[in-house]
Amino acid sequence: MFLGLQLIPTNAFSPIRTSIIGELMEAHYNSASMEHGKGSDGRRKRIISSSYGSPSLIKDHRRRFRDQLISISEKLQQEIIDAVAQQATFIETNLNTLRHENAILESERNPEFQKRLETEVTRVKGEMRTLIAAIDDLSIV
């Protein structure tokens, strides 16, 4: 599985300091830890409780989570596009090798086979152009 996808539950829902909530709450945690003296426990609890109850916390969390998810999906999309383009290149290379190696021998033995082979190669090239255009369209989005 793509590493970024594995980190989503931790980044989104964990209270650790490196998660989204941990980063958003860092200043509040620091503020609470600076409280000392008589009644400091109550003041610490109020600081943390009011911070967790803040509507901006949820909005900021949602925004950061969305941004992380978009970043991960863009990286994954690029990896898929690269893999498909690489495979298409391999297929094209293999077809060209087959065409060049067998074309001379088969055309001498079987001209009808040569015509069918040329037709098929033309069809596959058309499909590859369509595939490459689709990949290019994905990379634009």
Describe this structure in words.
This protein has 141 residues and is an all-alpha fold. The protein has 2 domains: 1-53, no CATH class; 72-141. It is 87% helix and 0% strand. It contains 5 helices and no strands. The chain has helices at residues 3-13, 20-33, 40-52, 55-109, 111-140. Helix 1 (3-13) runs antiparallel to helix 4, helix 2 (20-33) runs antiparallel to helix 3 and helix 2 runs antiparallel to helix 4. It starts with a helix and ends with a helix. This is DUF7605 domain-containing protein.
Percent helix among the residues?
over 70%
Largest pleated sheet:
none
Oligomer: single chain
Radius of gyration: 29 Å
Q: Which runs of at least 5 residues are low in confidence (pLDDT < 50)? A: none
From N to C, what is the helix and strand string? HHHHH
User: How many structural domains does the protein architecture include?
Assistant: 2
Structural class estimated from helices and strands: mainly alpha
Distance between the termini: 23 Å
How many strands?
0
| Chain-averaged pLDDT | 80
* Discrete helix count: 5
How much of the sequence lies in strands comes to: under 5%
Protein name: DUF7605 domain-containing protein
InterPro entries: DUF7605
Pfam families: DUF7605 (PF24564)
Organism: Talaromyces stipitatus (strain ATCC 10500 / CBS 375.48 / QM 6759 / NRRL 1006)
